[in-house]
Structure to design on (790 residues):
């Protein structure tokens, strides 16, 4: 197996092309420009590959929606403010059950914010983001290897559930280089009957999200909801690190989870038993897995590069089962493992409260 | 023996239009389907209807269709066409869809010279939402959101899509027609055929703007609506061919 | 065992290349490695810096709050980063353009006149490779052979002679540090 040293943005691009992505549209925005540039350069080597620099993020998401309907494997990418612009199209793709991969290399917000790594888009990513009753699957890689693996998987899940799937990383993941091995992609399994390629001699088809009859629309919503239930049931992923005999577990994802691992190492050296629960899918959130862990671990510290968004999901999973503390650094600030270790040590030595 | 002089085009579904009496959409749907039949392209055509009255166009066109969010038709059509270059792809848009909320998508699809066809229904008013001001509403024209008539000082000027888009080097064929008379309908059909042929020959972006009556929101009867297009609308939006580079492009392509 | 290194200098001094070349050679020698560039809104001017972590185990944070090594190619970088270097850490500085010396007393300092050495070699653009020679000799993070092979791979064979001058530059820096 060949090992490559590549930046996160390049890795996503390479993994996508290897996974059979043949249509990419995007609009430049820092800190994900290298991904757009990689697709411009390398989509050419893929037969039938199309790279299109769109006039806006709004256009990009609709371009990939069109190409997806036409049967191509599709991807677009952006960073926080651009993802806000894509929401109309993401909602539309969810409604029309069009597969596609959307990459968000998060930066500081709200508004234009800044271009530093941040995790302020958790709510937007996991609650649907656009209007209406829908969800998108959200993967939160924490290493460059996971960026490669999950990008490839994202295409398979998008097809399997006919839904937009999001890769949620941040500026640090996008810019960082680590060695990576690209796995062999699975052959695509996406039935032609879902594609719009011209009716030929047969019956014409249409793809739509507009259902004027409320009963039809309600049924469509429930159909989507049943699909999301299946995803929740089957597709959660997470990692537990040193949780077996931990007195306290940090809950963190992506870059924050890496920082947490660094902090845990320092805490180990001072004799504290601290583990990490790392959601890899943010939606579906590994709620039951986290609750199961609360049978062993009674104290949790949620750590996010935000003011506390995943915290809500942790509360839903653990409220009444365990004690929950929070540490957050929003707006593009990236804490050091030493800082987090100090925070954890303080919580660790606090007298445990009774939990109801 | 009975001689058939007129029948429903094969590409038009056997359904009763939901459009208001006197509306131009049903006429345009029908002549588009006639062209699709005549060119025998039903099996390779993919249409993108807009948000607006024609959002339900897939109930009538018997071709593959996918609905776009408001104004995004040309972006979606670009995606479809780039993924399937040998299909005939059209977006069907109203004045709000093309010239207001979707002006960026329309402008840039045209500027890229996407090999697609845009059918643009200009009725100077927002139809489906109940007669509000459109980007093509004319100065002093009353709508529900310009109750004293469109004022330049507040609302600016009506957008002349054909004139503007014909300036873009990416466009190949642009014509403005009217469907307010049998002659106008025939002329419009010819323009649509030319636009589709332009696309089939791979010659680039084509747009047919159609001045189309909206008696309900104009608050006129159907006859007066047709007259109003002649007497008022066509003065601001004169019909004609604004761009025809078909021959030049064909020569270029041959070289 | 984990070693973290910060490279810093003006944009254009090849600072990011110093980081990527170290990261490549560490990977090729079988280590875990992360490379993290600082990125800003401006395309030219200002300082460029990057952080490389090399370890024989999984690397948690790619950020170095207390780097073991600091390699600075200009004065502003020295002032920005010298306080972060871990106690008993090491600072390499490009003494050709840095006249100041670190205020820290608990770190080892190597002043390498990269500019002058480069001039002697007849190519002022290899100052960064000279510094890498000195750094790798002293730190021993990767083998010199591995480094040079990796450098050749990432530079490509675009120009004949590039590999040759790089080898010379690396050797000059390597030999500058006495055992």
């Amino acid at each position: 197996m060949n090992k490559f040293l590549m930046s996160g943005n390049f890795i996503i691009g390479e993994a996508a092309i290897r996974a059979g992505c043949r249509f990419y549209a995007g609009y430049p925005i820092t800190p994900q420009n290298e991904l757009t540039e990689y697709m411009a350069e390398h989509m050419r080597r893929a037969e039938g590959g199309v790279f299109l620099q769109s006039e806006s993020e709004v256009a990009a998401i609709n371009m990939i929606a069109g190409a997806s309907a036409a049967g191509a494997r599709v991807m677009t990418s952006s960073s926080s403010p651009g993802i806000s612009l894509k929401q109309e199209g993401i909602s539309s793709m969810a409604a029309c059950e069009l597969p596609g991969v959307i990459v968000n290399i998060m930066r500081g917000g709200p508004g234009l914010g800044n271009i530093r790594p941040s995790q302020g888009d958790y709510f937007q990513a996991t609650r649907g983001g656009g209007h209406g009753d829908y969800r998108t699957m959200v993967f939160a890689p924490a290493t460059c290897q996971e960026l490669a693996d999950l990008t490839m998987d994202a295409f398979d899940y998008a097809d399997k559930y006919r839904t937009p799937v999001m890769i949620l990383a941040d500026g640090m993941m996008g810019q960082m280089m680590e060695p990576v091995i690209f796995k062999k992609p699975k052959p695509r399994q996406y039935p032609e009957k879902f594609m719009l390629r011209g009716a030929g001699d047969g019956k014409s088809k249409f793809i739509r999200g507009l259902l004027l009859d409320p009963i039809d629309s309600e049924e469509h919503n429930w159909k989507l909801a049943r699909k999301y239930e299946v995803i929740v049931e089957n597709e959660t992923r997470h990692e537990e690190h040193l949780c077996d005999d931990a007195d306290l577990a940090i809950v963190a994802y992506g870059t924050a989870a890496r920082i947490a691992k660094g902090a845990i190492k320092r805490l180990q050296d001072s004799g504290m038993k601290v583990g990490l629960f790392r959601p890899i899918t943010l939606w579906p959130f590994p709620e039951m897995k986290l609750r199961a862990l609360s049978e062993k671990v009674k104290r949790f510290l949620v750590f996010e590069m935000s003011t506390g968004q995943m915290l809500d999901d942790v509360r839903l999973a653990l409220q009444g089962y365990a004690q929950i503390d929070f540490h957050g650094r929003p707006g593009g600030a990236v804490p050091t493992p030493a800082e987090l270790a100090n925070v954890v040590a303080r919580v660790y030595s606090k007298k445990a409260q009774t939990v109801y | 023996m009975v001689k058939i002089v007129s029948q429903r085009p094969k590409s038009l579904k056997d359904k009763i239009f939901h459009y208001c009496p006197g509306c131009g959409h049903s006429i345009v749907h029908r002549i588009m389907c006639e062209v699709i039949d005549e060119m025998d392209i039903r099996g390779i055509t993919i249409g993108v209807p807009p948000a607006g009255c024609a959002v339900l166009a897939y109930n009538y066109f018997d071709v593959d269709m996918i609905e776009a969010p408001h104004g995004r038709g040309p972006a979606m059509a670009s995606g479809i066409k780039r993924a399937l270059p040998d299909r005939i792809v059209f977006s069907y848009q109203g004045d709000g869809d093309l010239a207001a909320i979707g002006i960026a998508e329309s402008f840039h699809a045209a500027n890229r010279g996407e090999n697609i066809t845009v059918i643009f229904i200009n009725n100077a008013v927002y139809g489906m939402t109940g007669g509000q001001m459109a980007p093509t509403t004319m100065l002093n024209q009353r709508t529900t959101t310009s109750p004293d008539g469109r004022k330049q000082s507040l609302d600016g000027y009506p957008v002349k899509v054909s004139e503007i888009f014909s300036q873009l080097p990416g466009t190949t064929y642009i014509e403005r027609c009217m469907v307010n008379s049998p002659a106008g309908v025939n002329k419009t059909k010819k323009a649509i055929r030319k636009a589709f042929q332009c696309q089939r020959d791979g010659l680039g972006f084509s747009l047919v703007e159609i001045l189309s009556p909206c008696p309900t929101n104009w608050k006129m009867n159907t006859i007066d609506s047709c007259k109003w297009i002649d007497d008022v609308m066509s003065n601001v939006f004169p019909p004609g061919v604004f761009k025809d580079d078909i021959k030049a492009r064909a020569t270029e392509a041959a070289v | 065992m984990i070693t973290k290194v910060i490279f810093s200098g003006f944009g254009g001094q090849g600072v990011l290349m110093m980081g990527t070349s170290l990261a490549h050679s560490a990977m090729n020698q079988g280590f875990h490695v992360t490379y993290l560039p600082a990125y800003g809104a401006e395309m030219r001017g200002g300082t460029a810096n990057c952080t490389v972590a090399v370890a024989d185990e999984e690397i948690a944070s790619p950020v170095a709050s207390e780097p073991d090594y600091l390699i600075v190619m200009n004065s502003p970088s020295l002032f920005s980063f010298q306080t972060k270097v871990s106690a008993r850490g090491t600072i390499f500085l490009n003494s050709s353009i840095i006249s100041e010396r670190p205020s820290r007393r608990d770190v080892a300092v190597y002043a390498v006149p990269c500019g002058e050495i480069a001039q002697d070699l007849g190519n002022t653009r290899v100052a960064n490779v000279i510094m890498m020679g000195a750094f790798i000799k002293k730190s021993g993070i990767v083998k010199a052979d591995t480094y040079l092979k990796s450098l050749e791979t990432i530079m490509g064979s675009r120009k004949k002679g590039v590999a040759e001058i790089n080898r010379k530059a690396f050797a000059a820096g390597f030999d500058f540090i006495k055992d």
